[in-house]
Design goal:
The chain is an alpha+beta fold and about 350 residues long. The chain folds into two domains: about 150 residues, no CATH class; about 160 residues, no CATH class. The protein contains ten helices and ten strands. It has a six-stranded mixed β-sheet. The longest helix has 16 residues.
Length: about 350
């Protein structure tokens, strides 16, 4: 309970973190209550949320190639200003003029396959490889330079879709667009649907799980035309909504182990499709990977903890904003960058200011 925290610990600085949805339209009253509670305890805090994500922050300022939007509530104890409306101390696009997230290279954060112990633990099984093989053939051989921006649904490949009248507008839109796409490429798609995939099972696409019959192409920046187009040099994610692929710049947020990002064999240092390792996931959070081994934490538990963790570099940057020490555009390595590499160092930095 925030009231208990701010009442029990009269610190000079207070930082709270939560998911971005906390500031959404469904939680307006909750957000209002949080701000009023903090101000009533004597803290100056902006009513406007500070939303930060590591992939929009340059590496030298604590950023990392991972999308992880989180809301930070940055508070300073100052009873004279507690009820004043103040501007946010930091904004999401603070570095936008000097940094683009497309500059990231996820390969720089990966351990080469040859250096990973028991690499087979992270490689995909035969079925998963068959799913990706089928979709790789699809993107390589379909005769169009522009793949759809909408999700491709194999189960919607029909000439004349029968759409119930009560179908939501968004779903109707996808069904109609998939039907049109099918009509435009029917000869190729019909041949592709008859092909079998996999080294052992030999399954047609219609025999894949429904979620693996759905595909989201988000890699137009990497492959703007059909020439040399493939998914082998992309990042893949097996989502409940389908297989999503994107350029190997930055990764989606670390979430459940069943959705761990997959790197393809066209990425530097990767020999076969595999998931990222706990050590690589730790790098994306700014956490020394050896912590889990020393603590005897299982890999499953490590993935879960990393998926729930805050990014150390982002927290360090948020603290700099609170202390009035944000970097200028021309500034080099910031004061607290070392703290983003060491959880103990960050704790000491925060403690010295509290």
């Amino acid at each position: 309970d925030i009231r208990e925290v701010v009442g029990a610990k009269k610190r000079q600085y207070l930082v709270l973190e939560n998911v971005r949805n906390l500031t959404g339209p469904r939680h307006t009253e909750t957000w209002k209550t949080i701000i009023e509670t903090i101000r009533a305890a004597g803290y100056s805090v902006s009513r406007q949320p500070v939303v930060l994500t590591p992939h929009l922050i340059p590496k030298e300022h604590g950023g990392a190639p991972q999308v992880r939007d989180r809301v930070f509530i940055l508070c300073e104890r100052d009873e004279r200003r507690a009820n004043l409306e103040v501007s946010p101390l930091m904004c999401r696009d603070f570095f936008s003029e000097q940094w683009s997230p497309d500059q990231w290279r996820i390969a720089d954060y990966l351990t080469p396959d040859r250096e990973i112990d028991e690499i087979d633990r992270y490689r995909l099984g035969a079925k998963e490889c068959a799913w990706l093989e089928a979709w790789d053939y699809f993107v390589k051989n379909i005769e169009t330079d522009v793949l759809p921006g909408f999700p491709i649904w194999v189960d919607a490949f029909v000439v004349d879709p029968a759409i119930p009248h009560d179908t939501p507008d968004w779903e109707r839109n996808f069904l109609e667009k998939n039907s049109q796409f099918y009509r435009e490429h029917q000869q190729f798609i019909d041949c592709w649907l008859k092909m079998k995939w996999g080294k052992t099972s030999k399954l047609c696409v219609h025999e894949f799980p429904l979620s693996r019959q759905r595909f989201e192409w988000q890699a137009r920046k990497k492959h703007p035309t059909r020439s040399r187009r493939t998914i082998r040099d992309l990042v893949c994610q097996m989502r409940p909504s389908g297989i999503r692929v994107k350029p190997a710049t930055y990764l989606p947020a670390l979430v459940a182990i069943t959705q761990t990002s997959i790197v393809g064999p066209g990425i530097e240092g990767v020999d076969q499709y595999r998931t990222i390792t706990p050590l690589e996931a730790a790098r994306l959070q700014g956490i020394p990977g050896g912590i889990f081994a020393r603590a005897g934490v299982s890999e499953r538990a490590a993935y879960k903890q990393l998926g729930n963790a805050v990014n150390v570099g982002v927290v360090a940057l948020a603290m700099r904003a609170l202390w009035g020490e944000l970097p200028s555009e021309t500034e080099g390595e910031p004061l607290l960058f070392a703290c983003a590499q060491s959880s103990s160092g960050f704790s000491q930095a925060v403690g010295s200011q509290g």
